[in-house]
Amino acid sequence: MNITTLVKQGILVVRVEGEMDMHLAEQFRNTVDAALETSGVKHMILSLKGVTFIDSSGVGVILGRYKKITALGGNLMIVNAKPQVARVLEVSGMLRIMKLYNSETEAVESL
Amino acid sequence: MTIKNHLKMSLTSNGENVGIARVTAATFAAQAELTLNDIEEIKVAISEAFSNAVIHGYKDMTGEVECEMILTDGMLEFTITDHGKGIADIDLARQPAYSSDPERMGLGFVFMDSFMDELFVESVVDQGTTVRMIKKLILEQAN
Hints:
The complex is a heterodimer of chains A (111) and B (143).
Chain A lengths: L1 E7 L2 E10 L1 H18 L3 E12 L1 H16 L4 E4 L3 H9 L8 E2 L2 H6 L2
Parallel strand pairs in A: 2-3, 3-4, 4-5
Antiparallel strand pairs in A: 1-2
Chain B lengths: L2 E10 L3 H14 L6 H23 L5 E9 L2 E8 L7 H4 L14 H8 L2 E7 L3 E9 L7
Antiparallel strand pairs in B: 1-2, 2-3, 3-5, 4-5
Helix pairs in contact in B: 1-2, 2-4
């Protein structure tokens, strides 16, 4: 799994490539938590464009970041999820609290 | 029901092998007449069952996770077995949002249930758990 983080217009943008399962959940958690801490920003865009697989371990680690960000008054927006990834997010019930966006621009505009 | 193919493998209970198990299951499933969506669902279900064996079955121990796959003319059957701690209350473990670990979502069995047609769980405390999942194959109907 490859994770890149950058701050754009005061928003932390996290782009993930690979398969989000139990093996890589910890790497995601550590990288994102460190980036949130060092950047000090409130909002986060999570681009899943390069994610080809997700299971409950991946969903759980995203939900964990969502709770952390919203507790501080921020928002977490998921963009570019592939259909199979969006389906798993939907079955998990996560889309009841989080919205999917088609692009990073669309997510930024929603704020 | 005729067995068309059978595969049995045993993997060490580590996180790296979750990917190997689901990719093998997807390749095995590809022999049947299934949609890509069905294969994606099988990958998630196998990933959940294998992850449960690693995270809950063996926890801090290392053991073997056995995966058995059977293709018949009417279904695909996947069995994941560990020889770890076992589950004290299977009905409770299968509830949505139940997890013995507060860091996790407790969605493993929910995903297995949602993405497969049948799910059977057998477990004995301190002996291990066997999860058997079935995906039915829709036989082509004559016009």
